[in-house]
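>> Question from a student workshop board

For tomorrow's exercise we were told to take the sequence and the ligand below, predict the bound structure, and bring the output to class. My setup keeps failing. Could a helper post the expected result so I can at least see what it should look like? The ligand is iron/sulfur cluster.
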Amino acid sequence: MYNVMSPKAEEFISHEEILDSLEYGEKNKENRELIDRILAKARERRGLSHREAMVLLDCELEDKIQEIFALAEQIKKDFYGNRIVMFAPLYLSNYCVNGCEYCPYHAKNKHIARKKLTQEEIVKEVTALQDMGHKRLALEAGEDPVHNPIEYILECIHTIYGIRHKNGAIRRVNVNIAATTVENYRKLKEAGIGTYILFQETYHRESYEKLHPTGPKHDYAYHTEAMDRAMEGGIDDVGLGVLFGLNNYRYDFAGILMHAEHLEAYKGVGPHTISVPRLRRADDIDPDAFDNGITDETFARIVACIRIAVPYTGMIVSTRESQSCREKVLHLGISQISGGSRTSVGGYAGPEPEEENSAQFDVSDNRTLDQVVKWLMEMDYVPSFCTACYREGRTGDRFMTLLKSGQIVNCCHPNALMTLKEYLEDYAAEETKAIGDKLIEKELDVITNPKVKEKVVDYLKNIHNGQRDFRF
Ligand code: SF4
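>> Workshop helper replied:
Here is what the output should look like for this input. Compare the format with yours to find the bug.
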């Protein structure tokens, strides 16, 4: 039974409803009249249902496919402008009791180096991340109640927020840890986390159970209902994701949109972000052993259709994707990317000896953060290190209200320019700085409120005097 308001996973992610949606998409993939109606609705910028989005994903009319891409690009521009938020993952521990078949941290992997950062090592890692210029982290840890209990995660968050090094500071810590209890989510909220991120991997229950044969993650319902518990624990911003390549991408596309609809209907606020990782090679994991891989073309279609279906939700692409693939999807809807990432435990402070490889996956985009920042600016994007909304209490529906009000040009855009300038001043290479300074000058014109503009100009001038962290 399908019931978007039900707290039960099997009802808000109804297998039958997904199958019906897949059939609906397939049946209407050349239905010009319906596709036109859906596109007209999408132009109102209020999103689409999973069924409507499915028709766009399946669409086989070449001219309409081009319209879908153009609309995604326009919606991206309207809501997010040309800002791209920067972040980095920080791996705390790769101890894990689960048996996930696609991840080298699975418990049966006896040869991968197992590591867990001490608080002293965290200081070294975070200092290295601050020296790169990062302000926003996503913490990653395997599930292991003995090695990585919630107390350990909380202690790490506390340590990270306390580290001050030159002009650096981590201003937002997002957390990607296993599904847990309402009580633990409350503790994470009290520790000041930004977004709680948990990837569903796949919404297809049977495949999910096969892919997670052992460990607590085997419990599909407990995992799928985690975001409801996180919100009950007071966390407003949650981040969804599936791992494309594990299961039929159409099924998971419908599933993730149904999940977003459920959170919006039942909790009053949709997901803050949606991530679109694809399966990657890693230690004992061969992506070719999975037969659901998707092409770059399909990947771009997925990004565009998610952007159209949930215009207010941020979209994340990581260094799992190559530079060229990231370039292709940036304008279609991506609003956050990682840069200079290390996917091993302790990888920022120094390189790992080869025999001690602890990485979760092989990175495709190996450039430094500075190279990524320069590359973005050369394409006229504004890399943003802003974390203001979270620190000003604009989370959950308050953030959505800001986005919907169209006032981002006088809030997010100025914050992006000021934090970019901080980056240029403190961390950038000469050439990057020169490109960035020119870009900032040009982008000041986007700000429509003269008072806001005046304050920004003033801040930018005073940055040489050591002034930092002014925000709207
Ligand atoms: S995906 Fe997460 S839960 Fe699964 S083995 Fe890897 S670290 Fe553990």
